[in-house]
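Chapter review: from sequence to fold.
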Amino acid sequence: MTTTGPHTAQPPTRRGRRRPRPTDTVPVHLYGLRRGTGPLLTLVCALFAAFILAPLLWLLINATKTQANVYGTPGFWFARPFHLFQNLSALGRNVSGAGVYLQWLGNTLLYAGTAAIGSTILSAMAGYGFSRYRFRGANALFYLVMATLLVPITSVALPLFLVYAKVGLVNSVWGMILPSMVSPVGIYLMRTYIDASVPRDLIDAARMDGAGEIRIFLRIALPLTVPGLVTVLLLTVVAVWNNYFLPLIIFSRSSLYPLTVGLSSLSHAAETGSKAELVPVLIAGGLVTILPLIVLFLFLEKYFRGGALQGSTTG
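The token string follows.
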């Protein structure tokens, strides 16, 4: 006697093939697209991926070359001698007279890490306040914070430098960190995320049980907003990591440069031709610069995606 059950093998079809099992794939026509557009969409995605990854591939290949091979061989193919480790070791020396790359990397890690943690904390507190407290002028204050996004940094560069000169923040680490801790985008994202993920009834129940406001924020609100917090953290790290204009106007000592200003000075030395073999060192520095961001994104991608989607589907 044979029995059937959920784990019983499916009988073969007339052609001797097993029936395809149902999958979670959504048919293309359910998206409003015609059948047969799948290969076209795949091709478009592949071309877009090649467009995005081509500069990274160019950096990886040319970081292994000498300066003569950078200009004398195809950009997307390797050449002998293999010079990657020599170029990487040069990043630990002052080969250009403008400073040491590893010192710039350490400065950038300090600026980005400290500013990101501070920005995440402040954005969470401000977003929670705008979302869960009602006070006079709350909307006007929130719109004022959002209006700062319309002000270009170049228009406040001179006033910012004069204020820094008065309070002693020129050539100071805090001159880079403090402004980066204020993130209007982070405040907006946290307010939107808290509106969607922290129920008001849960907060009211905690208040009725005698919990204080600080305890409610730390023990109830924050655990429910981890994807939003990670999103703000990642966005702030990327913003500070790529910031060029602010450190350019407040730092005059190369020992305080972040990677953006340091690589710019290294590029200037390579263009003048006063130093030999600086171009492959510059390329190797650019390659190392993007690796921490890639690693950070891979670790936080699931939180970042969840926080971004949550913020984009609510208002």
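Two observations follow directly from the output. The first helix runs from residue 38 to 62. Residues 1-9, 311-315 have pLDDT under 50 and may be disordered.
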